[in-house]
Structure formats: C-alpha cells, structure tokens
Amino acid sequence: MEFVQQNIMWVALAAVSGGMLLWPMIAGGTVAHLSPAEATLLMNREDALVLDVRETGEWSTGHITGARHITLGQLDKRLSELEKFKEKPIIVVCATGNRSSSACGQLKKHGFDKVYSLGGGISSWRDSSLPLTTKS
Predict the structure, then answer these.
(1) pLDDT in tens, 78-118
(2) 70 with 58: CB under 8 angstroms?
(3) Taking Cα atoms as reference points, which of 62, 80, 84, 58 lies closest to residue 71?
(4) pLDDT digit string, tens, across residues 1-37
(5) Which residue numbers are catalytic?
(6) The pTM is what?
(7) Alpha helices in 29-52 (DSSP H)
(8) How far apart are CA 81 and CA 112, in angstroms?
(9) In angstroms, rounded to a whole number, what is the distance separating the alpha carbons of residues 97 and 33?
(10) Distance CA 10, CA 75 (A)
C-alpha cells in the first residue's frame, strides 16, 4: 500500500493505459484490422466498399479512389445509404484507425457482418505508397 501512495502517478498512468487497451473489447467487441495490402486484395477480389469516416477537411486532402464519405458523426443518420451493401465487405477508413474501429462497432450493431478497419488508417495507406485522389 505504501508503494501505491508513493507512486500514485505511475499507478494511475498504468491504470489509464490498461483501460485504453481494453476499451475496444468492452465497447464494440473485436474489430478485424486489415493492412493496406489485405484491403487492396479485398477490394479487388470481393468488390469491398471503402467507407471513409474522416471529417470533410481530411477527406478533401486525399482519399481512396471509389470510397464513400460519411463522417463518423453522421454515420447513424446515414446508415440507410449503406443498406444495399450489407452483404458486401466494408473497409472503414479514418486517419489512423481509431475512428474506423468505432464506426465498425456501430455497423456491426446494425447487422453489418463483413466489417473491417484499415489498420493505421489513411496514414498506413499513404506509407504504403498507394494512390489517393482529391476528386469527389
């Protein structure tokens, strides 16, 4: 107990870090993360839909060709636009992979089964030297 009192900041930091690691499992179950190469294969072989949930300013700086843009904040209101893709794989993209995991959880709650997050987000796509477009 004395150790905890003397090192309260370190103990708090460890508790917060552990909570952040566990949160995705508690909040929305597990989300499958794809590498850019795996995402490309899924797009080419199974005609996967790419759903970009970044904000409009981020979208306009460059996005994956053919992606649909629905911000994370608008996703619940615009789910009807995605109903026709319920049987297709959906690859959700954001800047780094955090928002896409949240969006995957929302989609799963609404009956979308084949939902994947692009691990590392658009940053990993860019780091893999894969093309982006600024055309709408």
Answers:
(1) 999 999 999 999 999 999 988 999 999 999 999 999 999 99
(2) no
(3) 58
(4) 777 678 888 877 777 776 666 655 555 557 889 999 9
(5) 94
(6) 0.78
(7) 36-46
(8) 13
(9) 9
(10) 38
Q: What are the structure tokens assigned to 48, written together?
A: 């996967």
- The continuous run of DSSP H or E covering 116 comes out as strand 115-118
Q: Report the alpha-carbon distance of residue 85 to residue 121 in Å, rounded.
A: 21
Place of tokens 């109903």: 83
3-state class percentages of the chain: helix first, strand second, coil last, to nearest 5: 50, 15, 35
pLDDT confidence bin for 136, thresholds 50/70/90: confident
The type of residue at 2 is E
What is the Cα–Cα distance from 37 to 16, expressed in whole angstroms? 33
